[in-house]
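If you are new to this repository, start here. Below is one unmodified record pulled from the training split, so you can see the exact layout before writing a loader.
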Amino acid sequence: MDGQADDGADLGPVLEFMKQLWAVDHGLQTISKRLESQHGITGPQRLVVRIVGRTPGISAGALAQILRMHPSTLTGILRRLETRGVITRKSDPNDARRALFMLTARGRKVDLLKTGTVESAVRRVLAKQPSEASVAQKLLAALALELESDSTA
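And here is the target side for that same chain:
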């Protein structure tokens, strides 16, 4: 877009970008609610499942670092996934204080979902505009860092 709001008002680049971020957030929330009603798992929980599926035996600390999520927030997600029988935890044989996570059979089914997910929408967009992907990732990563630094200031 050229900075014009739907009603023709000139929002400028900052507000136009924020408008698009809110639209993405709304879409993420909508898909998350649909996933929960259809499969008993939210969007953020599915992201955890996808990462655990690719890195069986991952620790909560490593997951929190990958997700750039506060460990206490992740603890709630992991607890709900474990309660729903999607993941299982076992003690790290090298450090009994540390838990390692793997998918259960149910978790593997959730990991294999192909339609109605956030990543299916992302996959379609990236397929249409592959040259834009790295620019978008860099921009979003920079924004995430900036937001993170603002929250700790």
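Two things worth knowing about this chain: Strands lie at 58-59, 87-92, 95-103. The CA atoms of residues 115 and 121 lie 9 Å apart.
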